[in-house]
Fold each of these.
Amino acid sequence: MTTTHDLGQPVMTPLAVADPGGLIQSVDWVAVAPPLIAALAALAVLVADLFLPPARKRLLGRLSAAGLLAALAMLLPLVLGDTRSTFCFTSGGCSYTADHFALAFQLLVLGGALLTVLLSLHTVDSADAEKLPAGEYWFLLLSSACGAALLPAARDLATLVIALEVATLPAFALVALRRDGRGAESALKFFLSSVTATAVMLLGVSFVYAAAGTIQLQGIADGLAHAPAQLKPLAEAGAVLTLVGFAFKTAAVPFHFWVPDTYVGAPLPVAGYLSVVGKAAGLSGLALVTTLAFRPYGHTWGLVLAVLAALTMTVGNAAALRQRADTPYGAVRLLAWSSVGQAGYLLVPLAAAGYADSAEPLGATVAYALIYGLVNLGAFGVVALVGGSGRLESFRGLAGRNRWAAFAMAFFLLCLAGLPPGVVGLFGKVVVFRSAVDAGLGWLAVVMAVNVVIALAYYLKWTALLFAPSTEQVVAPRRVPASLATALGLAASAAVVLSVAPQLVLQVVSGSLF
Amino acid sequence: MNAVLIALLVLPLLGAALMLAPIGDKRALRLGTTLTGATLLLAIALAAGFDRGAPSRMQAVTDVSWIPALDVRLHLGVDGISLPLLVLTALLTFLCAVYSVKKLPAGPGGRAFTGLLLLLETGMLATFTVLDLVLFFLAFEIVLIPMYFLISRWGSGQKVRAANRFILYTLLGSAVMLLGFLLIGVKAGTFDMVKLADAHGAGLSHTTQLIAALAILVGLAVKAPAWPLHSWLPDAHTAAPTAGSVLLAGVLLKMGTYGLVRVLLPIVPDGTATYAPYLGAFAAVGIVYGSLACLALARTGAKGDLKRLIAYSSVGHMGFVLLGIASLTPTGVNGALFANIAHGLITGLLFFLVGAVKDRYGTADLDTLAGATGAALYGRAPRIGALLAFAAVASLGLPGLAGFWGELLAMYGAFDPAAGLSRPAFVTYMVLAGLGTLLTAAYLLVVVRRVCMGDPKQPAPVADLPDLQGYEAASWTPLAALTLVAGLWPALLLGLSDPAVKHLLGSG
C-alpha cells in the first residue's frame, strides 16, 4: 500500500543503513489532499489578510470557498480509486487512511464548512455593528475544518487527539468573535467544558497506551485482547475516560449542557457549523475509537452508548419541546436542543456496532450524519435569513413574506422530523432503526420511536408557524443576499434530489466502510 | 396496465407540485377537479382492464429497484383486495374536489387546499398499491402532513389541538409499526410483501412473529382505529373541514384495516393467530362502546355534535371490520373488506350531509338544530332530509343497502372462527356485535327523528334553509347510488375479494 513498497525498498529499514534516503517517509499527497488543501487555504487567507486593503477583504471569503471546493474536488479521485494509506509505520499500520468511512466524513465536514462559508459571507462582509473580522474569521473556520477533516482519517490516538484539538480550538475563538458580550461568555463556557473533556480524554489515552503498548487503533485492539490481567482495570478506565472525552464533543447527555448557551452566543453560521461539523468530528472520533480500538470491549461500550443514546435523545427532545415561541433566540435554542436529540439518534448505530461486534451498523450513522448535516445547515440558513431577535414568533407568516424561504424551512424541518415530503429524513431514520433492530436493541428502537414522535411535536409547531396568518402588518421583503440564497438553494435542492433518489446517500449503508 | 397504475400515482403528485406555481385560487380548484377526475378515470380504466377471472393474482405489476442499499423496491400492483379501495379513494377525492370548488371551507385559499388534497390522494392511492413494506410505511406517512394542515388550517373549533393529536397519535403508531416491519425485513431478508405473503411466515420464528405482529397490530390499530386507541378520532373529525372528514373516515381509516389484511394476516400468521382473540375482544368492545357513545350524544340536552356522533359511529363500524379480520376466516375477512367499502361510501355521504347542515346552520350541535321538536328537514329541505335518512338507514345496516352485507358476514365469520381460535369467545363477541347493531339502529333513528322530523313551523335558528344545490347533488348522488348497488349486488365486490382473501389466508 505504501510507496516504499512500490519502490521495492525493504519494509524494515535498520537505523544504521548507508542509505539515508530510505528513512525519509514518503507521503501519499493525494490521500492527504483534502485536509491539506483546507490547511493551505487557511494559511493563504491569513497571509492575504495582511496585504489586502480593507475594500478588497471581500475576496477572502471567496478564497475560502474556493479552497473548500478544491478540497472537496480532491475527494473525487479517492472515492473512485482504492483505499490509500500514508504515514505508515515500518512495523505495519498507518496513521492516515482514506477509506470510505474517512471520505464520507470528510465530505460531510468540508461540505458543511462550505455551506457555512456561504451562510457567513454576508454577515462578515456587511458593514453593520455585528461585523466580524474577516481574515481571522475565515482563517479560524478553515483551520477548524482542516482538523475535522483530518480526524476521520486518523488511525492512531495521537493523531486523533491532535486533529480533535485542531478542530475545536479555533471553534472557541469563532464563538467569541461576536462582540456583544454574549459571545465571550459562550466561548468561555464552551472552552472550559471542552478543555476539561480534552484533559480527561488525554488521561484516558495515556492509560490505554500504558495497557496496550501502542497508540495505533488496530494495535490497541490486539493489545487489549492480550493485555495482562493486572492491567485490565487500567485499560478499562482508560477506555471509559476516552469515551467520556468524545461524548463531550458529541454533546451527548450528560455532557451536553454547554450546547444551548454556546449556540446562542455564537454568530449564527458558527452555531450551524458547530451543530454539524463539530458534532461530526466528535462522532467520527467516537466511532473510530470504539469500533477499531476498543473492539474487545464491544458489549460494554455498546451498552454504555445505548444508554447514552437513549438519554441524549430523550433529554434533547424534551428540552426542545419546552421552548416557548416568544423567548429571545428561541429558534437557535430550539435547534440547539434538537441537535442534542439528533446526536442521540446518531449514537444508536454506534451502540448497535458494539452489540453486533462489527463495524457494519456504522454505515447508518454515516448516512444519517450526512442527511442531518445537510438539512440542519439549511435550517440554520433560514434562521439567518429571517434574522431579527431569533424568536420563533418571528417565523409566523413567513410564507406570506418569503414563500420560497418558508417552503425551504418547512422541508428542512420535515426532513429533520423524518416525515414525508422530507423523504430523505425518513429513510435516514429507517436505516438507524434498522441497525438497532438488527443488533437486537429492541428497547432502544422503541425509545427512539417515542422520541421521533416527541420531536415531531416541536418541528411541526414550527412548520405550522411558517404558514400561520401573520399578525403584524406586511413589511417590504428584505433583499436576500446572493450568497445566502445560494447556500439555501444548494441545501434545498440537494435535499430534494436525495428525497427522490435516497440511494445516493444510503449506499454507504451497504458498502464496506473500513 | 402497469403504465395506468403508475400514472394513477404520478398524476396527483405532479398536480400537487404544480400547486407550488402561482396560479389563482379559483383556477387551482378547477384544476384540482380536473386532475382528480382524470385520476378517477384512470382508476376506472384500471378496474375495466382488471382480469376478473384471476383476482388473487397481482396485476399491473411494476417491480424496479429504488434503494438497493436498503433492498427497497418500487413494487406496485393491484389485486381483488386493493382494487375496490383504489376506486373508492379516487372517487371520494374527486367528489371532495367537486364539492370544494363551490364550498371551500374558510382558510388560507384554494391553491394550498388543492395541493394538499392532491398530495393526500397520492399517499392514499400509494398505500393501496405498494407491495413493499418500507414503501407501505412511506405511503402511510405521506398522508399525515396534508391531513394535518387540512385540519389545522381549514378546520373549525379546537382545530390545532385536534390536528396535533391526530398526527402525534398516528405517528407513534406508525413508528412502532415500522419497527415490526424492520424486524420482519431483517429476519426474512426481504421487504417484498408478495414474497413474504407467499412464504406464510416460513423463516420467521414464533418469537419474531409475536413481536412483529404486536408492533404492526398496535400501529394499524391506532389508524383503524380500534378501541381503546381511538381517542384521536372524534376530535379530528369534529374539527376537520367536510372534505377532510370525508377522506379521513372514507379512506384513512381503511388504510389501517387494509394493512391488517395485507400485512398482518399473510406475513405473520402465527403471531396474528395468537393476538386474534384479543383483537376480536377489542373490536366487540369498540362496537358497543361506539354505539353507546353515540346514544349518549344523541340524547336531548347532551349538547352532542353531529360530526362527533358520526365519528363515534365510525369506531363502532370499524369494530365490525376488525371483528371480521380477527375471525381469520375467509367469510369474516371478506365481510370486513366489504364493510370497509360500505363504510367508506355511507360515512362519506353522512359527513357530506352533516357538513352541509353545519354550513347552513352554522353549528352541528344537535340540541341547537333540533330545537324543541326537531329540525324538520323533511319539511324545510326535503331532499337533504331524505338523503340523510337514506344514509342513516344504510349505516344501521338495512338489508338491501351496502351496510348490511359486510357486518352480517363479519358476524358470521365470528360465529364460526378459524380452527385454533376459541369458539365460545368469538360467539360472545358476535353476540356483543349483535347488541351493537341494535344500539346502532337506536341512535341513528333518534338522529333521524331529531334532525329530519319535527314541526316545520317552530322558530328555527336560521330562517332561510336552501335545499339540495346542484354541486351537492353532483357530489353526493354517486355515493348514494353506489350504496344501493353494493347492497343489491354484493357479488360485485365479494367476487373480487374472495379469491384474493383465500389466497392470502393460504387456503386457496
Note: The radius of gyration of chain B is 22 Å.
Amino acid sequence: MAKNRAAWLLAELPALESAGVVDAATAARLRTHYAGAVQDGGLARGLSALLGAVLVGLGLILLVAHNWDLWSRGLRLFVVALPLAAGQLACVWTLRRHAGSRVWRESSAVFAALAFAAALALVAQIFQFGGDLDRYLLSCALVALPLVYALDSSALAVLAGGALLGWVGAQDTALRQPLAVLLAFATLAPHYFLVRRHEGEALRSAWLLGGLAPLLVAALTLAMPSVERWAWLWCAACALLLLQLDALLGGEASFVRRPLRVYGELGWALVALAATFPEFWRGGGSRPPAVAAPAPTAWALGLVLAAALLLTLDALRRRRWLHAGLAIPALTLAGVQGLGLVPLPTPAAVLFNLYVLAIGIAVIAAGLRERRLRGVSSGLALIAALVLLRFFGSEWSFVARGLGFVAVGLAFLAAHAWLRRRLRA
Amino acid sequence: MSRRWPWLLLALACVLQWTLPASLALRSERALRSGHRYYLHTAPVDPADPFRGRYVALSFPDARVALSAGFAAAPGTRVYLPLRIGADRYAYFGAPAARPPAAGDYLAARVQSVTGGEALLRLPFDRYYLEEHAAPAAERAYRDAGRAADRRTYVSIRVRGSDAVLEELFIDDRAVRELR
C-alpha cells in the first residue's frame, strides 16, 4: 500500500475502533502491519533531505575550493570558515528547534562534518601543504565522533567508518595495526547499541550495521600483513562470525533487516562453493603457506575464528544444528592452513559437494517447517548454484549441458510453484 | 542520554572543528611571517605534464638521502632533517635523525621507502596550488621557457621551529604566480 494511504488508514484507526468497526486487537495488528510502509515513506523523505544537505555542502565546498589567489590569505581563511560556522549553527538550530526530527539531525550532522573536512583541506591548500592523507582522514573521523553522538546521526557514523577505512588504506603498510583498527571502530559501537536499544530492529539499526560491518572487515583486512595467503580462511572465519552473530542478535526481523546474515551467507557460499572444485584444494590459496603468519595477521585471524567457534558451540548447545553445521568450511580451512593438514583434492571436493547439498536440503526443510518461503528459496538457490557450477566444472558437451540446464531449471520452477502453493495453503 | 549531553558533545565538536584548522593556519602564518627562508631545488614530478589541474606535483632531488650507519628507518617513520645552506645558496639536508637537532632549523619528514642504505623521504609539501584559470597560462609560460633540462626550478620555503611552509615556486627565477 502506498505510504499516504497507509498513513490515512493508521490515522483512521482510532475512529474505526471507537465506532466498533474494528476491535482493539485488529487495530493493533493493522498498526504493526502498516508501520513499515509509513516508516519507509519517512525514510525516503529523510534520504532526499540528507542528499540535499550533502549536495549543497559539497557545492559550497567546491566554490570555496576555487583557489582565489587574488584574495589575501586572511580573506580566503575567512571564506573557508563560513561553511564551518554554517554547519555548526545548523547543529545548534537542530538541537534547539528540531531535536525530534531525524531528517534535521542527520542532515545537519553530515553537513557540519563535511564542512570541517573541507575547512581542513582548504587550509592545507592555502598554505600549500601536501598533507598526509591518513592523518587527515583520521582527524575527520575523530572530530566527527562527538557530532555522531550529539545529534544521534547514523549517516555520519557510516561516513566516519568510511573515513577510518580510508585512514587504514592511506597508511604506510608497515604502520597498519589491526588492534588500532578495532579500537578506532569501537568508538562507533556505542552509537549502534544506543540505536538498537531505542529502536530495536528498525530499518535504521539494520542500515547502520549493514554500513559499518563491511567497512570494519575491509579495514581489518587491509591492516593484516600478507592476509592474501590466508584469504580463504579469513573469508570463511568472517562469514561464520557474521552468521553466528546474526543468529544471536537477528531475532525475528525480516531478511532485509539482517545485513549480517546477508554478508555472512554470501561469504559462506563463496567459500563453500569454491571448495567444491578439486582445483581449490590444489591451489596455493587453500594450502598451508610456507611461512608463518605475521603476528598481527595471526592474532586477528585467531580472534575472529575463536569468536566464531565460541558462538558455534553456543549454537550446538542450543541444538541449532544447521547453524552449527555452517562452521565446517572455516574449521576445515583452519585445519589445512593453520595446522598444516593436507587433504586429497578430489575426495575433499566430493565431500564439499555433498556438504553444500546437505546444507541446501536442510535450509529448505527448515523453511518448510517454519513456513517461510524465503528460507526455501535460499536453499533452492544454493542447490541451483551447486548444480550450475558442476555444469561449468564438467567436460560435458554443450548440448548435454544445455539440456541439463533446461531440465534442472524446469524442475526448480515446478518445485517452487508447488512449495508456494503448499506454504500459502 | 540526559538532555545536557548532546549540548556538551556539540560544544566539544565545535571546539575541535575550530581548533585543528585554526592551529594549522596560525602556525603556518607564523612560519611565513617570521620563519627563515630557504631555497630547495625541485622539479615537477612529470616535466612533460607538470600541471595536474590546479596544482603542480613537485619532486625534490634532495629528498633521497643516505641513512647513517646504525639508523634503521622503516617506511612511515618520522625523521628530522637538519637544514644547511650550500655555496650555491640552495639548502640541502643533513643526515636524517630520529630526534630534532639541538640547534638550527630542520624539516620533519616521513620515510617513504628504503633501498640500499638510502631513504626516499616525503617532505611536508609536495604540491603547489594555483588558481584554476592561472594554471594553463603558467603551463604555457613553462613550456615556452625552453627544454626541461635548461629550466631552473626551485621553491622557497619558510621554516620556524617544527613548522615548514612552502612559500613560492620559481621557474627561471620567476614566481609561477606571475607567469600569466
Note: Chain A has a mean pLDDT of 83.
